[in-house]
Design goal:
There is one protein chain. The chain has 11 helices and 7 strands. It is of the alpha/beta class and 244 residues long. The protein has a single domain (65-242), classed as Rossmann fold. The chain has a 7-stranded mixed sheet, sandwiched between helices. The termini are far apart.
Length: 244
């Protein structure tokens, strides 16, 4: 199983490094960009995504949303039918690429702490041919206002403009960053927020908040699934519709 491969255990041992710097530390993130550029058909989003999945299964485990949970992400994006989508946690650009594929008319912004990861994602988006509507902002929502200010200054952002949010970054920041987005007034009733890895590594405060707010500010569905690229570790993906 993928979870037993050496690359998985290197990833697990490097979890703190991922949280601090956004990369495992063995070069796998740069390697996947090179793999995509060598093996995936240029301009073919489907083939680029399949090639990333192939790399994660057969070369080195990656901490993107993956193919199984990616189907849940795809379905949520189609329900939202966004014109503007925001992702927290770009990593190598896989999640944002799935959003772009499921919403071919959407502009996608993604926030990434690591400048190196941001460059990797841009390379992959360019190879897939969707880079004209993809924007990676280097920073974090909790950095004291710099990143929020950069987003606010971007023309698409404004009151009620944000139709879809995908949260897949530092698990301890899920709830605070969601509150920041709500406080900026960017959501509207019907906006959809999807959160990955709510069970593993886990975002218990986020899950507890959504349970308390069920039927009030949010309507949440908990999707039972598995950790990316294996079938032994259970995970949760939360899909929450904003009620206002």
């Amino acid at each position: 199983m993928p979870m037993l491969r050496l690359s998985f255990w290197r990833m697990a041992l490097g979890a703190n490094r991922i949280n601090r710097g956004g990369q495992v530390g063995d070069g796998r993130e740069a390697a996947v960009a090179e793999y995509v550029e060598r093996h995936a058909r240029a301009g073919d989003v489907d083939d680029v995504l399949a090639t990333i999945d192939e790399f994660a299964y057969h070369q080195s485990f990656l901490v993107n949303v993956g193919d199984e949970k990616g189907l849940l992400l795809d379905a949520a994006v189609r329900r939202a039918d966004p014109r503007l989508a925001l992702e927290l946690g770009t990593y190598c650009g896989y999640g944002a690429l799935r959003i772009a594929r499921a919403a071919p008319n959407a502009v996608v912004y993604s926030v990434e702490l690591s400048a190196a990861n941001a460059e990797i994602a841009r390379r992959i988006w360019a190879h897939a041919g969707v880079d004209a509507r993809m924007h990676c902002v280097v920073g974090s929502i909790g950095d004291g206002g710099s990143t929020l200010g950069a987003l606010a200054a971007s023309p698409p952002f404004g009151p009620g403009a944000l139709d879809f949010v995908f949260i897949d970054h530092d698990k301890s920041a899920y709830l605070d960053d969601l509150h920041s987005i709500v406080d900026h007034g960017w959501l509207h009733p019907g906006s959809i927020v999807v959160a990955d890895n709510v069970r593993i590594p886990g975002a218990p405060k986020y899950r507890a908040y959504m349970r308390r707010q069920q039927g009030h500010s949010w309507d949440t569905t908990e999707h039972r699934t598995h950790v990316e690229y294996q079938s032994m570790l259970p995970d949760l993906v939360l899909e929450s519709q904003y009620l206002g």
